[in-house]
Design brief:
Helix 1 runs antiparallel to helix 2 and helix 4 runs antiparallel to helix 5. The relative contact order is 0.22. This protein is 58% helix and 7% strand. It has a domain of 100 residues: Cytochrome c/b562 (Four Helix Bundle (Hemerythrin (Met), subunit A)). The chain has a two-stranded parallel ribbon with strand order 1-2. The longest helix is centred in the middle third of the chain and has 26 residues. By secondary structure, the chain is mostly helical.
């Protein structure tokens, strides 16, 4: 039987315009990324898709349904980022883009390994590493509307 620890992530994206980082405050140490409303919505939509995939993966692992693990992971793989606005490339910091790309890659690897190995413990370990990317991103960046 697999045990899964649920991470409770506090919201770290600020939606109020003009909020400045304060030493020791909620925004301390995070890079502010300024986007248009449409760009912001595209990024947030992608993040919600990551969460939906993760939820489905967890349920599939608990049911030992590795085909569903692969299908759910693939939904957030590299091909999922193809519809992002082209304007984002110039606005997102390189470290944000690198983390996003690595997250998509990790979803693809999870899908492939679920199909080829069929090992729910391995998939759960991969999901843990993947969630580390999510935590790192939310701890490092905040999105503001231009």
């Amino acid at each position: 039987m697999l045990f899964f620890s649920v991470l409770v992530l506090t919201p770290v994206l600020s939606y109020s315009q003009g909020a400045e980082p304060k030493a020791g405050g909620e925004h301390a140490g995070r890079t502010t990324v300024f986007l248009t409303e449409a760009e912001r919505e595209a990024v947030l939509s992608e993040m919600r898709a990551f969460l939906e995939s993760t939820e489905s993966i967890v349920k599939a692992i608990s049911d030992v349904d590795m085909a569903l693990v692969a299908e759910s992971a693939r939904k957030s793989g590299r091909s999922a980022g193809a519809d992002m606005p082209k304007t984002l490339h110039g606005k997102l910091p390189a470290s944000f883009r690198k983390l996003g790309s690595d997250t998509h890659r990790k979803f693809d690897e999870l899908a492939l390994d679920a199909e080829q190995l069929g090992d729910e413990g391995h998939s759960l370990s991969q999901l843990g590493a993947l969630l580390g990317n999510c935590v790192s991103c939310h701890a490092s960046f905040r999105i503001e509307v231009e």
